[in-house]
Amino acid sequence: AIVNSKYTNAIPLYRQEQEFARNDVNISRQTMANWVITTAERYFSLIYDKLKEEIVQSPVVHADETPVLVTKDGREQMHKNYMWVYRTGNMCKSKAAVLYDYQKTRKADAPREFLNGFCGKLVCDGYQVYHTLEKQPETPFEVAGCWAHARRPFAQIVKSLGSEKASGTVAGEALIQIQNIYHTDNLLSKLPPSERLKRRKTLVAPLVNAFFQWCSESEGRIAASSETAKGIRYCLNQETYLRTFLTDPQIPLDNNLAEQAIRPFCVGKKNWKLIDTVHGAKASAILYSLVETAKANNLNIYQYFRYLLNEIPKHMDDTNLSFLNSMLPWSKNLPEECKKKSK
């Protein structure tokens, strides 16, 4: 119940402590924190490791990261730490996995370690670290860019000006073209992969070609310091990665899946502000991973946690971890109470 309240409903431990006290149950937040960290390290981490295997073997993975403050991370002053998130693509709906990974820095070492052996397509924003890792021996993946990031600066300009004033502006022209790319590609979403790839080449590729030609021609029409010019430069710099989706029907246009997956963590940290220790940060990564993966597989989160905490301790003396297969979020062997009755 404590895990579900904090990691599903974003209720920090101090507020749970107050609620328990109002009902004459005296459990300190320190005790709750110890329970959470211990169960995450001892039991839930086993499921986490199995989910990581699934992500690394997935053909398409989404990635994103967000800063978090950790009070006692071994450094003298408080520094930004980072929570990275990795998620399987939409084509893996039957085995959807979302994993958070706590790291002290935003350097390339974090995704290099997590994605070691991954050789699919990584959908991400324009952060250079991902591009640095691309096609290295330990991370032979290919990067696919995010059209939502390409669209964002133009959409913000149009929103600030209003649709009437934005009509005919360079930002307005850019937004219309990107929206047309989205609209055309969305019409293909229900086609079989081979047909979708074929239609992307005949219907979507010409729109993408026209957009980048327009970008090259429009750069000189506006002030170099303007937000519109910055948006155009971003698109031109990311052109190779923004075109990747045209080569693989499994790749979506954007990285929205990762942004949606990391949002619950961002909502939660507004309530609890910071994490006290590295152990707490690692436990949070494990527990947010199981919560978001359970959501993605249409599970009752409370009942799923309850089931894992009842079953995993029975196997702690097992040398073979194959018992975990029946406990994964998509397992047919999960009890009915773990499954939501409707989506």
Architecture blueprint of SSEs:
Blueprint: H1 2-7, H2 13-22, H3 29-56, E1 60-72, E2 80-88, E3 98-103, H4 109-114, E4 121-123, H5 128-133, E5 142-144, H6 147-161, H7 163-166, H8 170-186, H9 193-218, H10 227-237, H11 239-242, H12 256-272, E6 274-277, H13 278-296, H14 301-311
Parallel strand pairs: 1-4, 1-6, 4-5
Antiparallel strand pairs: 1-2, 2-3
Helix pairs in contact: 3-13, 6-8, 6-10, 8-9, 9-10
Q: What is this structure, in a nutshell?
A:
With 343 residues, the chain is an alpha/beta fold.
Instruction: Indicate the low-confidence ranges by residue numbers.
Output: none
Number of helices: 14
The proportion of residues in beta strands is 5-15%
The total count of strands amounts to 6
N→C terminal distance:
22 Å
Note down, in words, how this protein is organized:
The chain is α/β, with parallel strands linked by helices. It contains 14 helices and 6 strands. Helix 5 links the parallel strand 4 and strand 5. The longest helix has 28 residues. The mean pLDDT is 92.
Quickly list its features.
alpha/beta
